[in-house]
Amino acid sequence: MRTLSSVLIISFILSAGLSYAERKTFSVGPTESEMYRKDVMLHGAVELSKISGSRGETFEIQDDHKDHAMYAIYSWERRDRPCAVMIRTENINDSSDDTGGGVRDLCGGGRQGNKLSVEYSDVGLNEDRIFVSGVRVCMNKKGNKVKGLELRGKKITDDGKLVALIPEIVAEVGGFADPRIHSLGDVTQPFDKRSNCHKDKWKWWAICPRHTQIATGAILHFEEEAKQPWSLTGIELQCRHVGLVYIPQSER
After folding, report:
1. CB-based contacts of 92: which residues, under 8 Å, 6+ apart?
2. What is the pLDDT of residues 204-231, one digit of tens each?
């Protein structure tokens, strides 16, 4: 089960604010509540989305499991350069099997800084069985470094259908000392950004090209330097179709 702590839900209601916290992972054996009524499968060839951001030297990042799809993207920096990226994946039929993923570290072995984190949890603001279907990046003022991430997702229903998420608009307020509304946001599109994410530098969405697809991996674009760390400049998604099981697991 993906978990999210310290979350305060505010749906069209003014309250003390909105906060996200880091994900905590507990890997346990599957239970009845973590399995689903109808199994689905990933099928068809991998298709690429368009790119969000700018092109550079490319690196593939994916999970080797055939039944896993993406629910989170993390990024770290070194010397102001976004040089490491991780994706996290989950079994599309078993929410307890959620520790898959991959990482690309081009930081040159140095200590990494604070993490950017965008994800769909199984609790709190989100339901289970939600996976990434789109991503967009925010760049710095020069437009050569990724400084923010935002996700779009789709849900696999109990009867095995892939459906769009219904927007949930929330208000972020300043609390008792400053009760004004500071921003409105859609919690079905989680985002995170650094202070130097330029407000005019949110790029076009990279969306899975077909409505029956979710992301299983990504192509990362980096600006090549003479030596590491390199800087992340763009992301493409690797997408596959979701459908009801009609091919045995051993033959997929």
Report:
1. 40, 41, 42, 67, 68, 69, 129, 131, 156, 242
2. 999 999 999 999 999 999 998 888 999 9
Q: What is the pTM of this model?
A: 0.80
Instruction: Pick the closest to residue 239 from 205, 212, 200 (CA basis).
Output: 212
Q: How far apart are CA 119 and CA 217, in angstroms?
A: 14
Q: Which helix (H) or strand (E) holds 214?
A: strand 213-223
Q: How many CA atoms lie within 13 A of 152 on its CB side?
A: 20
Q: What is the pLDDT of residues 147-163, one digit of tens each?
A: 999 999 999 998 899 99
- Domains in the chain (CATH in brackets) are 2-251 (2.100.10.30)
Cβ 59 vs Cβ 234: under 8 Å: no
Tokens of 15: 């309250």
